[in-house]
């Protein structure tokens, strides 16, 4: 696999483009928004510096080029892989698949970075579903090494194998999800946690800052080293059995969107990208906050990879 077309340059696209180019893949990236293309172009030096600090080396042939295209036709022409990164709405994704369908060859793989729309549903809108697959990166994609690979009912095993091998060749960690369940694995786990934390904050059990301290220093720090299944063994399955016998029934099980989230999104408070969400952000301090987070993620990743 040599050439990748990346469609969508919002939160995820620029980091993915940079990571793939660092791995030697020629990237042609596009977005319907000219502003998004310019923002992505401007982000590349910062992202490359973070990858340098992570010690992510290019292959002997060197880092590949990233080009920006203003239209889908130019972006996907000659691509071995088209990676779709447009918003998480099935209809928007379907319109992209309809548009590229006539522009790509039978060998081109189309992958989606959907956070959790079933692949079987998305691949129904493409004429070669055997070459369609989920490739779910985690944010920030130039730092987090794990990528989920998900087959839909019509995905060929060779397509899964090709994407898994591609991820390995980039020095990243593919995890093949064996069933096409909504949210796959990473987001099922993350959203179980987020649902509970939002509920606890909403019910006044804890303030947002203390919830973050509790989860980051109590669970997050430990879980980076000891995964949840291994944690069960560390705690003892007898303990888990006793606690879960009364606690499971009391955990949040709401199936709608929490009022706190509806209120914030309704007021346009989407988080960092609008200058405020759960917390408020000073526009001048956002770059420093992101740099500080990148520094810490780099330091933790080095230790996890190399040992203390
Ligand atoms: N934000 C996150 O933390 C993560 C998001 N994802 C998934 O990745 C995908 C992209 O997410 P984000 O980057 O957060 O979205 P975003 O909303 O930040 O960016 C999407 C970009 O797609 C562009 N776009 C819309 N329609 C287009 C079209 N027809 N052709 C080309 N470009 C088009 C928009 O202009 C925008 O720049 C979604 O499916 C999302 O669920 C996956 C992992 C993490
Ligand atoms: C809130 C949220 N939702 C989805 C994702 C994703 O992986 O798709 C993430 C992420 O961190 O990557 C996320 O934080």
TrEMBL record:
Pfam families the UniProt entry points to: 3HCDH (PF00725), 3HCDH_N (PF02737)
Residues the UniProt record annotates as site (Important for catalytic activity): 136
Enzyme Commission number(s): 1.1.1.157, 1.2.1.-
Keyword Ligase: no
Every 3-hydroxyacyl-CoA dehydrogenase C-terminal domain range: 183-281
Residues of the 3-hydroxyacyl-CoA dehydrogenase NAD binding domain: 4-180
Signal sequence annotation: none
Class of this enzyme: oxidoreductase
Swiss-Prot/TrEMBL keywords: NAD, Oxidoreductase
GO biological process annotation, one example: fatty acid metabolic process
One Gene Ontology molecular-function label: 3-hydroxybutyryl-CoA dehydrogenase activity
Annotated NAD(+) binding sites: 8-13, 31, 88, 93, 115, 139, 273
Family membership: Belongs to the 3-hydroxyacyl-CoA dehydrogenase family.
Protein name: 3-hydroxybutyryl-CoA dehydrogenase/5-formyl-3-hydroxy-2-methylpyridine 4-carboxylate dehydrogenase
Organism expressing this protein natively: Amorphus orientalis
Lineage of origin: Bacteria, Pseudomonadati, Pseudomonadota, Alphaproteobacteria, Hyphomicrobiales
